[in-house]
Amino acid sequence: MIDGLMDDFRVIFGADRQDGAAYFSPAKVNLIGGHTDYNGGHVFPAALTLGIYAIARKREDRIVNFYSKNYIEDGIVEFSLDEELEFNSEDDGVNYVKGMYKYILEYLGADSANVVGADIIVHGNIPSDSGLGSSASIEMLIAKIACDTSGIEMEPLTLAKLGRRVENEFIGHKSGIMDQFAIEMGKKDMVILLNAGSMKYEYVPAEFGNYSILIMCTNKLRRVKDSAYNVRQQQCQEALAILKQKADIENLCDLSYAAFLKLSYLIDDETLLMRARHVITENERVLEAKETLEAKDLNAFGALLYSSHCSLRDDYEVTGVELDTLVELAIKQKGVLGARMTGAGFGGSAIALIKDTEIHNFILSVAPTYQRLIGYSADFFIARISDGVHNLDD
Ligand code: GLA
Question: Which of 167, 174, 179, 313 to mutate to test the pocket of ligand 1 (most atoms within 8 A of CB)?
Answer without folding.
Answer: 179
